[in-house]
Amino acid sequence: MKAMVLRTPGPAESSPLVHADVGIPAIGDGGVLVKVEACGVCRTDLHIAEGDLPVMKENLIPGHEVVGRIVDIGRDVHAFKKGDRVGVPWLRWTCGKCEFCLSGRENLCREKRFTGYSDDGGYSEFVSANADYIFKLSESLPPELAAPYLCSGIIGYRAFKLACPSVRDGARIGIFGFGGSAHLTVQLASKLGARAVVVSRGKEHLELARDLGAYETYVSGEADLPGLRLDSAIVFAPSGRVVLQALEAIKPGGSVAVPAIHMDAIPEMDYARHLFGEKKVFSVEANTRSDAREFLAYAERFKLKSIVETFSLEDANMALSSLKGGSIRGAAAIKL
Ligand SMILES: [Zn+2]
Ligand SMILES: [Zn+2]
Questions:
Q1: Closest-lying ligand to the alpha carbon of 47?
Q2: Å from CA of 276 to ligand 2 middle
Q3: What residues have their beta carbon closer than 5 A to ion ligand 2?
Q4: Tens digit of pLDDT per residue, the chain (336 long)?
Q5: Which ligand lies nearest to the CA atom of residue 260 in the structure?
Q6: CA 331 – CA 142 distance, rounded (Å)
Q7: CATH number at residue 200
Q8: Is 295 a domain residue?
Q9: Are residues 211 and 311 located together in one domain of the fold?
Q10: Gap from CA of 151 to ligand 2 centroid (Å)
Q11: Whether 203 and 278 share a structural domain
C-alpha cells in the first residue's frame, strides 16, 4: 500500500515524510483493517514529524484523525461489520488495569498507545485499529469533513468541559489561537450557551471565527486582557506566552485549559497578576472514549461544520508546512 513514512524527523519545510510502498498492516482477533478515505492533519503530527516529541516507532506512518471503511475484521469483533464507516482516533489502546484506567481516566494511562505515534496511522491507504477504540460514523458527512472531529474536535470538547464544568448561559469562554480544534470548539461552545471570545494573531482567522459563531474577536496584542473578563479560557496556540495572557484575561476563580501535547517555554509568572484569585491552569492530555462519544453525538446533533483544506497523500509534507505557517483556514486533511 502507499503511505507517507517518517524516516528521520526534521523541519516540515525539508519534507520529512517519504512516499513509500509498505505492507498492509496485520490485524489481530480484536482488530479491524480500515481502508482510509481521509485523515486529518493535526498539530501533533507536526510535532512528531519535526522531532519535538520523542520517537516511539521507527519508520512511522503518522495520522490519527482517520475516517474510512472496514474491509477486514478479526474474529472476536462483533460490534462492527465489513463496510461500516468508522473513525480511528488518537487513543489506540489502554491497559484497562491501572489506577487511571480503573477510575474513568484512561487518557492518563501510562501504558496507552497512540494511532500515528506509537503505532502506524492514517497517512496511508490502510490502517489497523482495535475495535474497542473506534467509532461508527454517519454516512451523511464527506470523510474529509468528519476527520477533524476525531482529535481536534474531541480534544477541544474535553478542554471546554474541564474549563467550564457547568456552562451557564452567557459564560465568557476565551479561545486563544484559532486553528483546527478551535474552529469546532467555538461552534460547540456557542451551541451550549457560552459566549466564545476568540483571540488570535491572524485577522483572517478571526473573520472565520465570527462566521462560526464567535461572540467577540480580538487581534492578540491589541486586546485589553483583564478587560476581557473571561470566566475561563482554552489556549490552543502552542505558545507559553499565550498561557500567561489567558491567565491575565480570566476573572478570579477561572480556569485556563491547555490542550497541547507540546508547548514552548512558559515565561516567568507574576503571582499577583497571573495566579492570585484562585485562578487555575491545567493541561489536557488526550481524551477518554467517553469524551469521544459525547463529542461525536454533539457534532451530529449540532451539525458542527468543519472547514477543511484538503491535500493528496503525496502532499502530506505540504499540509504540515502549511499548518506550521498558519495558512490553513480551519483544519487540514489528506483525502485519498
Ligand atoms: Zn491503564
Ligand atoms: Zn491530534
A1: 2
A2: 32
A3: 42, 44, 151
A4: 999 999 999 999 999 999 999 999 999 999 999 999 999 999 999 999 999 999 999 999 999 999 999 999 999 999 999 999 999 999 999 999 999 999 999 999 999 999 999 999 999 999 999 999 999 999 999 999 999 999 999 999 999 999 988 777 789 999 999 999 999 999 999 999 999 999 999 899 999 999 999 999 999 999 999 999 999 999 999 899 999 999 999 999 999 999 999 999 999 999 999 999 999 999 999 999 999 999 999 999 999 999 999 999 999 999 999 999 999 999 999 999
A5: 2
A6: 14
A7: 3.40.50.720
A8: no
A9: no
A10: 5
A11: yes
Count of domains for the chain: 2
CATH number at residue 128: 3.90.180.10
Contact 297, 146 (CB under 8 A): no
Ion ligand 1, residues whose Cβ is below 5 A away: 94-95, 98, 101, 109
| DSSP character string of 191-237 | HTT-EEEEEES-HHHHHHHHHTT-SEEEETTTS-TGGG-EEEEEE-S
Pair (8, 132) in one structural domain: yes
Helix (DSSP H) and strand (DSSP E) numbers for the chain: 8, 17
